[in-house]
Design a protein that fits this description.
Number of helices: 4
CATH architecture: 3-Layer(aba) Sandwich
Strand order of the largest sheet: 1-2-3-4-5
Radius of gyration: 15 Å
Strand content: 15-25%
């Protein structure tokens, strides 16, 4: 397996992975399309801007693209220090269960440390038990829950 920075030729592959990010039941007040479209917009914006404080990595397995990880820099609300935030981690269906997600997460941690981050954050939907279990096995712990009240 190899992990490399994304290139313009990876755009269609990465944008197509947005649908994998909602391969589970989503909260009732949002649709799968809403989540996928939001992730697609953020990923497309990365290709359009190529910002210095963000990174997009591609995992290749057996010579084929198998997943991606998109990192941004956020400022911690409590300490006011910048830190790395894993915005997207997605693996193709064919590569699922083959260590691609773990390899990408390891690479993201190294990127974050190299940039001076003292922690790495991510968000996982409460309905995505599989992702939450994966992150918890990797040492992540919940910090707080975000609640949403639809006002329609």
């Amino acid at each position: 397996m190899t992990i490399r920075p994304a290139q313009p030729a990876d755009r269609d592959f990465v944008l197509a992975l947005a649908d994998r990010l909602v391969s589970f039941e989503v909260p009732v007040f949002r649709s799968k399309e809403e989540f996928a479209d939001g992730d697609r917009r953020a990923l497309a914006a990365w290709f359009d801007r190529l910002p210095d404080d963000e990174a997009l990595f591609i995992a290749e397995l057996d010579g084929h693209r198998a997943g991606c990880a998109y990192l941004v820099t956020l400022v911690d609300f409590f300490t006011e220090r910048p830190h790395a935030h894993l915005s997207v981690l997605a693996v193709t269906a064919a590569a699922e269960g083959r260590g691609v997600g773990s390899a990408l997460l390891d690479y993201c941690q190294a990127w974050a440390r190299q940039r001076g981050s003292d922690h790495l954050t991510l968000n996982a939907l409460v309905t995505n038990a599989r992702a939450r279990a994966f992150y918890e096995r990797r040492g992540f712990a919940g910090e707080y829950l975000r609640y949403l009240l639809p006002l329609k």
